[in-house]
C-alpha cells in the first residue's frame, strides 16, 4: 500500500529503517528486513533509485545469527524477479551467490533457509545470464539432490522444481548436467507416485524439462506427451515403456538404476515402495542378455542394499 500510495515518502522511511537492520534487538532486525524485503517486490524501488542499496543491505543480512532474518533476506532478493525483473541480469552473479549460500546454510536444522533459497532461485533463473547460471550449475544440482527424498513435502517440491528449471537452462550445454539428470532419474520417476500432488506435479515438470537433454528422442517425447499436468498417468504402463527406452539407450546403466531403486524398498511411502520393484522388474525385462548377466542377484533377491 505504501509503494502504491506513498512512494515519495519511501526513501526517508528506508533511510530511517536501515540502522535497525543491525540492531541488537532481534525483533527490530526481523521487522526491518521483512519490510525492505517486501518492498523489493514493487517496481517503485527502481524509480526511487533504491534497488541497489536494498540489494546490498539484504545481501549483508545473510550472516545474521537469526534464521528468520536470513530467510527474509533471501525472500527479498528473490522478490527482485517480480519487482525489477529486467535488473536481475545485471545483478545475476551476486543474487546467485546469495541463493547458493542460503542452500549451504549450516545453522538451519529444518532447512527453512534452504527452502527459501530454492524457491527464490526458481523465480530468478528465467531472468539470469546463461554464463552466470552455468558457473554454478553443477554445484546447485548436487546440493539440491538430497532434498528430493525429504520428509517435508515443501522441500521435495521446491528442489525438484528447481532441478527442472536448471535442466531447461542447460539444454544448450546439456553435457554439463547429463550425469546429474541420470543420477536423479530414478527418484523423479518414483516420486510420480508421491502422496503429495504438488510433488507429483513438480516431478512431471522436471522430467519434461530433462527429456531434451537425455539424448533419447523417444524418451523425451514420452515425457512431453504423458506427463502433461492435465493428463492422468497409468504408472505401470508408463514405467514399462520408460524402461524399454532406457535399456535401449543406456544399457550400461542397469546396475546403477537397480541399486538406486533398491534404496526405495525401504521408503516410508507405500506407493513408492511398490513402484521400486516394479521399476526393477521392467528394467530386467527389457535389457539384453549380455547386460543382464552383469546384475548382482544377491541384493536384488534379498531386497537389501
Extract low-pLDDT stretches: none
Alpha-carbon Rg, integer? 22 Å
Count of helical regions = 19
Q: Helical content, roughly?
A: 55-70%
Strand content: under 5%
Largest sheet data: none
CA-based shape: elongated
**Beta strands, count:** 0
Q: Summed up, what is this model?
A:
The chain has helices at residues 2-5, 10-17, 26-39, 44-47, 51-60, 67-83, 85-88, 92-103, 112-124, 130-144, 153-169, 175-190, 197-210, 217-226, 235-249, 254-263, 270-286, 289-292, 297-302. The protein has 305 residues and is mainly α. The relative contact order is 0.06.
Task: Considering the chains and any ligands shown, give keywords for the structure.
single chain, 305 residues, mainly alpha, 19 helices, 69% helix, 0% strand, elongated, MROH1 protein, HEAT_Maestro, ARM-like, Maestro_heat-like_prot
Structure description:
- This is MROH1 protein.
- Residues 54-302 form the Maestro/Maestro-like HEAT-repeats domain.
- Pfam families: HEAT_MROH2B_C.
- The chain has 305 residues and is mostly helical.
- The chain contains 19 helices and no strands.
- It is elongated.
- The model has no long low-confidence stretch (mean pLDDT 91).
Task: Itemize the secondary structure elements and their pairings.
Elements: H1 2-5, H2 10-17, H3 26-39, H4 44-47, H5 51-60, H6 67-83, H7 85-88, H8 92-103, H9 112-124, H10 130-144, H11 153-169, H12 175-190, H13 197-210, H14 217-226, H15 235-249, H16 254-263, H17 270-286, H18 289-292, H19 297-302
GO cellular component, one term: cytoplasm
Pfam families: HEAT_MROH2B_C (PF23227)
InterPro entries: ARM-like, ARM-type_fold, HEAT_Maestro, Maestro_heat-like_prot
Amino acid at each position: 500500500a505504501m509503494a502504491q500510495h506513498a512512494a515519495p515518502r519511501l526513501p526517508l522511511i528506508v533511510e530511517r529503517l536501515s540502522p535497525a537492520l543491525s540492531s541488537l534487538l532481534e525483533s527490530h532486525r526481523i521487522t526491518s528486513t521483512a519490510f525492505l524485503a517486501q518492498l523489493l517486490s514493487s517496481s517503485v524501488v527502481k524509480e526511487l533509485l533504491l534497488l541497489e542499496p536494498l540489494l546490498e543491505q539484504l545481501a549483508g543480512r545473510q550472516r545474521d545469527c537469526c534464521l528468520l532474518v536470513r530467510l527474509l533476506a533471501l525472500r527479498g532478493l528473490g522478490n527482485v524477479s517480480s519487482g525489477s525483473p529486467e535488473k536481475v541480469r545485471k545483478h545475476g552473479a551476486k543474487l546467485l551467490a546469495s541463493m547458493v549460500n542460503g542452500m549451504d546454510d549450516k545453522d538451519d536444522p529444518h532447512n527453512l533457509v534452504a527452502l527459501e533459497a530454492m524457491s527464490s532461485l526458481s523465480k530468478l533463473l528465467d531472468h539470469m545470464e546463461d554464463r552466470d547460471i552455468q558457473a554454478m550449475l553443477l554445484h546447485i544440482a548436487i546440493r539440491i539432490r538430497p532434498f528430493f527424498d525429504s520428509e517435508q513435502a515443501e522441500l521435495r517440491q521446491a528442489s525438484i522444481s528447481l532441478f527442472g528449471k536448471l535442466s531447461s537452462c542447460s539444454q544448450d550445454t546439456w553435457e554439463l548436467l547429463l550425469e546429474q539428470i541420470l543420477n536423479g532419474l530414478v527418484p523423479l520417476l518414483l516420486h510420480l507416485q508421491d502422496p503429495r500432488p504438488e510433488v507429483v506435479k513438480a516431478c512431471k515438470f522436471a522430467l519434461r524439462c530433462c527429456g531434451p537433454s537425455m539424448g533419447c528422442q523417444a524418451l523425451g517425447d514420452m515425457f512431453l506427451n504423458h506427463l502433461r499436468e492435465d493428463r492422468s498417468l497409468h504408472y505401470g504402463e508408463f514405467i514399462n515403456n520408460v524402461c524399454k527406452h532406457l535399456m535401449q539407450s543406456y544399457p550400461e546403466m542397469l546396475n546403477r538404476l537397480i541399486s538406486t531403486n533398491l534404496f526405495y524398498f525401504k521408503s516410508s511411502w507405500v506407493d513408492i515402495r511398490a513402484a521400486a520393484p516394479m521399476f526393477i522388474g521392467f528394467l530386467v525385462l527389457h535389457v539384453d542378455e549380455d547386460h543382464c548377466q552383469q546384475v548382482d542377484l544377491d541384493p536384488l533377491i534379498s531386497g537389501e542394499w
